[in-house]
Amino acid sequence: MENTAVIFANRNFKLKSVNAKKFALWLFIVSICMLFAGLTSAYIVKKSDGRWLQFDMPDMFLYSTVVLVLSSVAMHWTYLKAKDNSLKAVKIGITATAAIAIAFFYMQYLSWVKLVSQDVFLVGNPSGSFVYIFSGLHLAHLIGGLVFLLVVFLDTMNYKVHSKSMLAIEMCTTYWHFLGGLWIYLYLFLVMNN
Amino acid sequence: MSITDIQVTDELVHGDDHHEEHHEQSFIFKYIFSTDHKTIAKQFLITGIFWAILGGGLSVIFRLQLGFPDMDMGFLQPFMGDWISNSGKLDPEFYLAMITMHGTIMVFFVLTAGLSGTFSNYLIPLQLGARDMASGFMNLLSYWFFFLSSLIMFISMFLSTGPASGGWTIYPPLSALPQAMSGSGMGMTLWLVSMVFFIASTLLGGINYITTVINLRTEGMTFRRMPLTIWAFFITAVLGLLSFPVLVACVLLLVFDRSFGTSFYLSEIFIGGEALPNLGGSPILFQHLFWFFGHPEVYIVILPALGITSEVISTNSRKPIFGYTAMIGSILAIAFLSFIVWAHHMFITGMNPFLGSIFMFLTLIIAIPSAVKAFNYITTLWKGNLVFTPAMLFSIGLVSFFISGGLTGLFLGNAAIDINLHDTYFVVAHFHLVMGSAAFFGLLAGVYHWFPKMFGRMMDEKLGYIHFWLTFVGVYLVFFPLHYIGIAGFPRRYYSFTNFDAFSSFVDLNSFVTVAAIITFGAQFIFLFNFFYNIFKGKKAPLNPWNSNTLEWTTPRIPEHGNWPGEIPKVYRWPYDYSKPGAKDDFIPQTVPYHQTKESNTDFENEESKKEQSAT
Hints:
The structure holds 2 protein chains of 2 kinds.
Chain A: H1 2-11, H2 20-48, H3 59-83, H4 87-117, H5 126-157, H6 167-193
Chain B: H1 27-32, H2 37-67, H3 77-80, H4 92-128, H5 136-156, H6 186-215, H7 228-259, E1 270-271, E2 274-275, H8 283-317, H9 324-337, H10 353-365, H11 367-381, H12 390-412, H13 415-421, H14 425-455, H15 461-487, H16 507-537, H17 603-615
Antiparallel strand pairs in B: 1-2
Helix pairs in contact in B: 2-4, 2-5, 2-16, 4-5, 4-6, 4-7, 4-8, 4-14, 5-6, 6-7, 7-8, 7-9, 8-11, 8-12, 8-14, 9-11, 11-12, 12-14, 12-15, 14-15, 15-16
């Protein structure tokens, strides 16, 4: 195993190429894009079939979108602080990002409650089911983002995040912004198509 | 504020220099939970072989039912238990389960995981000059997710209600409603769980392959110098990355329909006179999602085989591959087109005929890059100094199947003819030749060609020849008659045709096909013996048994973890310098610089050689 460690420590970096791990993250993001592209296309195909239930999207979805954008801002602030080597600020930033994200979870839940009060259920007309699936699947990916935040937080505790070791936090920031962008896409898609 | 400033040193160095030390690893980490790409490739291969025997075995059993419907199958009772009735008859529901499992096993477990998993893992680092994959750990996960998925699918075959039985395409509502057939209960659930792990495995593997090709090529290995095998594996991985997530979307909605009562695919269904509550769904939506994945999937199956064939045919014709750039171009064109033709699987769903004609047009365009590939193989063979190794024979066999199976694709791509031929044995014959047998021959060609590198020993050539001829003739004897049976109107997936007078004149032909299938299946045991016996007892392999140019033949007979004991070799030329005029040997490996081959250089290459020398 030691042998393996030696190889990997030395080999992952090469002149003139993207970092392999970052590149892999981007490929992962591409696959998530395809997942949601598939689902949103399914939405359009299904809608064109007719028998489509019309309902108002709860306002809470708009507020939660704003909150998720705020968490992206916090994440970016954290990233800039890591570049400045202010580790204390990094820890605060990560905690804030996670806390705002958890608020987002709660607000998504409130949106679901609102939907239920409008008689739009997961089980029923697909137009409603899709809203639950889109937001739920997005939250599932956000849980992955929270785990990533935790990893970066622990790295920061061990002084592994600083201006000369930015890989983990850079990747985390990329993924976090992606999840924000993904939700904005889903929200706008649902608002414009419903 | 304390900042520890640790190792930024190695980041800018190519840093592979000190690799001499080799620690003995324990058995578990060396052979089971290995992160070494060569071990993982062999794990994929062995698992794939296991599945191929099982999938092939199932097909022989249901061929017996089709060829000899009155046969007493009591002798199978020890294996199949209650699925054979006491009067020796195969259970009709289990017949459906077997064809479903045969399709699932062959498409996913053998020709996706067994083919890409084996050869992408084995050849990408070795032919690119890398120590290992970009992430050994992800690679390890990729195999073990596949293993878990295999295990679940295997267990599902022993359920008392049977495994998934709605066909490998699992169309709802049949697959969505447990009331519809016994296989749609627990068997279908396990199928879905198994596929979730399978998709995770494929995505992990694919991300790794792409990253390795982009990031870990050795010095001098430009994209224009990559062997066509690597080009094929690379594009295959891209196809997988783009299409498998859509299968996730497709299957996810099916899971919700099955387990939570949503109505994405279900609407207005009556079972036993009782109406189900589901309203507003559409089973056609499933087909759109499934085939948006499903069509690229058939290219995920065939492209690696075509890549292997390019390499084997060029090496054994002792000629450069004809049209290297055209080969890459046609791979890219096929990959692109594969995403915009999916609805040709759905001509009979009542789609708008105008839309159908667009998909028909796009589908027929695929004939162009496919023909480019076929012509390039033939022109590479033309006037070559052919060396008929078993790998070469299987590659030529692949070209034969690709052409004869591809021709019927032109018929089926036409909506007007497809509406007549849809879901008949004509379709079965088409895809078993062009995709099934062709990809399977690519897999076998790869095994025969790279066996000496994988295990450091040679396979027996004579057994290889016997295996080839029995399989090659056998495959045609099985699938050629199926065209006639299909045109005669036999629908696929039917348990028995004895009730239809119109089909009675084809009984003999069906029996003939079954006999041919048994012989073809039996011939595979020659291969199995040849393979397993020679892993241990084979003649020791020379370093470069086929006089090949690519990098994997510059490694020691049995490469250790890290592949090259010293520095990674540099690459100076493309991999197809065979029989170059003026050269003293009929091959010039990629590691030979131009300034050492003055006698055979072109003017352009002489310029390159000056650059090489000024660089050193």
